[in-house]
Write a structure and sequence with these properties.
alpha+beta; 7-stranded mixed beta sheet; globular
Length: 261
């Protein structure tokens, strides 16, 4: 389901903070310059075993060849693109660079105060996000396969109503949702990494009216986080969800469903 209800939840409060750039010294979302916030204690523990960028460079020539060259983050911002052009650039860029796992982002599309959130981690800054995913995912095996990238009217309507802004307001956002299949290995844990079964992610990218840049990204998964972790540690457990099918199968199912409607 694409629709969400924020209400007066912590997520709504955090989102209002991002949109309105308010100042609250007790708000964790504003104190992320030193690192990430982990919502899950186990994720926090395992995160201690992710090597730093410098450590990766010291592993050897073979490893150095596999390190992806990240954006230099000095490109001029692509301000106020029509939303249709933003969708096209995101679709093409993610398909080409697979930046949800490589970190090879198009930094010109992102605001300086960009904020990222998924069920386990929160962080501020596109450079920090790019470095984090690059270190987390094994660059030889991890893949992003885009299923769709399109404007999401349902979430756009919901989030703007929840924070009380209209389409004429500078704080109004339009939400682009990328549906994609994640597969590969993660560099996490004390034993050299874990294989993760393929699953579906939904990345909601919030483009704000005032400058046309992406200010917020929230990732959702089609299976619970505990299922993802248990599948990596004990994949034989009978109650775990099956791996996501290949993208070709997913697209065919969508086409069949559209044909039947």
């Amino acid at each position: 389901m694409y629709g969400t209800t924020l209400g007066n939840s912590p997520e709504a409060i955090a989102y209002k903070t991002i949109l309105y750039a308010t100042t609250d010294p007790n708000n964790d979302e504003q104190n992320l310059d030193v690192g990430e916030i982990y919502a899950n204690p186990l994720t926090s523990f395992l995160g201690n075993f992710i090597g730093s960028k410098d450590e990766k460079m010291e592993i050897g020539d073979k490893e150095q060849e596999n390190i992806v060259q990240l954006d230099d983050f000095t490109k001029p911002k692509a301000f106020n693109l029509p939303i249709e052009e933003m969708v096209k650039r995101l679709d093409a860029g993610i398909r080409e660079n697979e930046w949800f796992v490589t970190g090879k982002v198009m930094s010109e599309l992102f605001a300086d105060d960009f904020f990222f959130k998924d069920p386990d981690v929160q962080l501020r800054g596109i450079e920090k996000y790019a470095d984090g995913v690059n270190r987390l995912f094994d660059q030889n095996t991890s893949r992003v396969e885009v299923i769709s990238c399109e404007l999401n009217p349902a979430i756009t309507d919901t989030v703007n109503k929840e924070v009380g802004v209209s389409i004429d307001d500078d704080k109004f956002v339009q939400v682009v949702t990328v549906e994609w299949r994640l597969s590969g290995n993660v560099n996490i844990g004390p034993f050299g990494g874990l294989f993760i079964k393929p699953y579906i992610c939904y990345s909601d990218l919030h483009v704000r009216n005032v400058d046309g840049l992406i200010v917020y990204q929230e990732d959702r998964f089609d299976i619970p986080g505990w299922d993802i972790l248990l599948s990596a540690i004990a994949p034989w457990l009978p109650f775990l969800a099956p791996p996501a099918p290949p993208v070709s199968v997913i697209l065919q199912r969508k086409a069949d469903n559209n044909g039947n409607n």
